[in-house]
Specification:
The protein has 171 residues and is mostly helical. It has two domains: 66 residues, Arc Repressor Mutant, subunit A; 82 residues, no CATH class. It has seven helices and two strands. Strands 1-2 form a two-stranded antiparallel ribbon. Strand 1 and strand 2 form a beta hairpin. Helix 2 crosses helix 3 and helix 6 packs antiparallel against helix 7.
Length: 171
């Protein structure tokens, strides 16, 4: 019987191990543990292959733990896919910029906010990151085309509503 990871000739398809390792990561980040035999059945490979895959992930620094026979394998505290840690000054700077935009000229706050935004941008997918960059460029064009934001508020408001509508639809 041929598995989904094998060709008709019986050889494993190129990239199938990488694909399996990535899928294994997604499975293990869930709240329920997975036993080796269940993983082997799911991926249509031997238990030994699953043991090797788990070891490869552990050797790569991914915190996988096994709770013995009762729970199975899991990622430790979902630590692989956590939100980036912001320093207090970075979070404070974002909050101040939101509530008091006139303070954006304070260099310490401006730099801290830039660092926070960079950390957040690195934490999102490339698709989201490129969408944000596109919106930012279009916003700059709108601001630079008129006499400033105040002279073109309707156009700016319409643009931001369309961007936010697209962003909420992509969730």
């Amino acid at each position: 019987m041929r598995t989904s990871l094998q060709t008709a000739e019986g050889s494993v398809q190129p990239g199938s191990r990488v694909k399996r390792l990535l899928q294994l990561l997604w499975i293990l980040q869930g709240n329920q543990g997975w036993h080796c035999s269940r993983l082997a059945e799911h991926f249509q490979v031997s238990r030994r292959t699953i043991f090797r895959d788990i070891q490869i992930l552990r050797d790569s620094g991914i915190p996988i733990h096994s709770s013995g026979s009762s729970i199975g394998y899991q990622l430790s505290n979902n630590s692989l896919f956590r939100c980036p840690e912001l320093e207090a000054i970075e979070l404070f700077a974002l909050k101040v910029m939101h509530t008091s935009p006139e303070l954006a000229k304070v260099q310490v706050l401006h730099r801290a906010a830039e660092v926070a935004v960079a950390k957040l941008m690195n934490a999102v997918s490339g698709r989201v990151r490129s969408r944000v960059e596109l919106m930012n460029e279009r916003l700059k064009d709108i601001v630079e085309s008129g006499a400033g934001i105040s002279s073109d508020l309707r156009k700016l408001d319409s643009f931001l509503e369309s961007c936010l509508g697209v962003a909420t639809n992509q969730r």
